[in-house]
Amino acid sequence: MTKQHKLRIKGPVGPIETVIEEPSGTPSGLALIAHPHPLKGGSLDNKVAWTLARAALSCGLIAVRPNFRGVGDSAGEFDHGIGETEDLLALADAITTYYGKLPWTLMGFSFGAYVQHRVAQELHAERLIMVGPAVSMYSFEATRIPTTILHGMEDEVIPYHAAREYAEEHAIPLIAIEGAGHFFHGKLRELQTCVESLCKP
Fold this sequence. Notes:
Blueprint: E1 3-11, E2 14-22, E3 29-34, H1 47-58, E4 61-66, H2 82-99, E5 104-109, H3 111-119, E6 127-131, E7 147-152, H4 160-169, E8 174-177, H5 188-199
Parallel strand pairs: 3-4, 3-5, 5-6, 6-7, 7-8
Antiparallel strand pairs: 1-2, 2-4
């Protein structure tokens, strides 16, 4: 049985509403999961973010799902990925203080992938998993840690070819999910299986 905690963790501009789920058994690491765009309905309850948490738990990782600034009980206002990066770094620091130096896996969906690729520049993590990264909306740089992209081939928000071009430019492995749109309707189980294959020991 997994244990779930809903907390308000101190961040740079106030509380960060966070759901933390612990796997059964001794955890092997921590997974920080970032949801899609806050101004377009994104929250920690987003079904892709939830699916990433299920994959993390299946891999023995503690799943950490915060709400970005201005979402739910998280303080502050949308900050175009800059303040959101600061919040996730502060959150990771607080979580590490509590759980100890377990290795981090970073996971992000859409806008959340953009934020996580920024977090990966500063937080020591084992891997970065970007799902449907918003490469056609934001300026993504090269990543400094082992990275994998998962993208729906029928993505109607972030075209598949944009993700493929970014992946090829930076030599990042890309897993294409056939028939999947941006929100992976009907493809969440397949997405979860793919993520589990990346984070299981």
